[in-house]
Specification:
The chain is an alpha+beta fold and 581 residues long. Helices cover 43% and strands 18% of the residues.
Amino acid sequence: MYVDVVPNRHSPPAILLREAHRADDKIIKRTIANISDWPMDKVDALRALLKSNGGMQVVPSGEAPMDITRSLPVGHVAAVLGAMQRLEMADIVGLDGIVGQRVQALIAARILDPQSKLATAQGLDGEAGGWIQTLSDALELGRRVDENDLYAAMDALHARQASIERALVHRHLQDGSLVLYDLTSTYFHGHTCPLGKMGYSRDGKKGLLQITVGLLCTRDGCPVAVEVFEGNSGDPGTFTAQVAKVQERFGLKRVVYVGDRGMITNARIREDLATLPEVGWVTCLRAPAIQELRDQGAIQLGVFDSQDMAEITSDDYPDERLVVCRNPLLAEERARKRQELLAATESALNEIVARVRRAKRPLRGAADIGRSVERALSHHKVGKHFNVDVTDDAFVWSRNDERVRVEAELDGFYVIRAKVPAPQPAAADLVATYKGLSAVERAFRTLKGVDLKIRPIHHRLENRVRAHVLLCTLAYYVEFHMRTWLAPILFQEDDREAAQAERASAVAPAQRSPAAKAKAQTKRTPDGLAVHSFPTLLRDLATITLNTIQPRITGVKPFTKTTLPTVFQRRAFELLHVPLP
């Protein structure tokens, strides 16, 4: 037998497995199989095998007839790149050629294993091996990639930010949509970035420069736009920029903004939203405003002995809707926390009393004693609940129990404040809408946590920092959809309607559906598959490898073979609607 290649004039050559024998003076050929659809490395291996000594070669006992010279993980890379292709990320980014491929690599790398751009470039350049080599091969990046190439790709991405956000908004939002907006901060250790400023740290990292990041999301928490501000930017000031962006850049005139009590303030309502009659908003009142409503009699505390939600009106908020809510669990938590803060403050005050009364080097002077007392009262922010008396050589304090009692009456209370164009939603829907901000908080946890690692920020140029944040946001956009598609085999909720039915009211804590509870308890899906978190699922898919195999037969070239996927891995690719590698 032999391999015969028969040329065709107007089509690819036919590759045939044949045998031949001589009859009289003629050579008779018989075709055994048409192997034209075989890859050439497989054809070459068969040709070499047929040319070997009887098609056989002796292999010493106990040794394999072939060697696996290399194994590259391909499963998780194929899943991420397939999801990106399904989402048409190349069209969203809008960059052609090698620059566009490098941006795709940066987005995928952020999901697979977030590293610095230098570390990513070192992996993409040369025979690095591992998943990053698979990524480079899949995107045909070639063998010469350095960090400057990736920086250039980031610069090109930053230049496209407005177009990218416009494409995402047009895909996910329309007139009348809910728009969630929230702000976070993230620190870095550099000192030369113009955006880095000292400000209120939401990470609890004092003494470090930071930037603030504003994220616009759909009501489900899907990110559609992001903006980086200087680290000392306040919440209300950034909201003004988002209103202008949505109105002017995105062309959406009828939307409903959802923001927390520090974001949509009286000033922002008066200056930014009151002039836009088709724009609605949903926010929450601050504690002093709630106390004022209570003092006016607008909030009747006795009503909430039998219900957890009531809609009220007030002359202070004309043409607005106010929904008063009381969460007993929140009330218990607030009371517990207050007691801990009061106890800690009392301990600090008693230490000052001891310093004033001690015989050796006592604390003296009303000014010095007063400064110590002020620090103790302000540290836990419960100083308003204490009465103090300071003289040059004495200090006494007492707790104002009446003030504590009055404040405790409002434990667990919050008031939704809204102005929404017709048709008017029910009060419960307004509460649920405001609680939707938790989706943005979840996005921030993913961006800043171990999943995408927006920090540490390794850049110092303003545009590079902005590009880095945009890159992480696009990676979260892909991961958000992957988590949604893979929800049946992840621990997250995959039946929202059933979960909502389990909830006693909009004020009550969110509940899991029976199916989600069963997944959490048994760690198995209904069809017996293991349930994963998103990171462990990616690690499982990474066990699908592309193996380079070298037969121990003289003249036979190496070939590649992908490991067979498990039932779980097949299910994951089915849910993603992505072909197996």
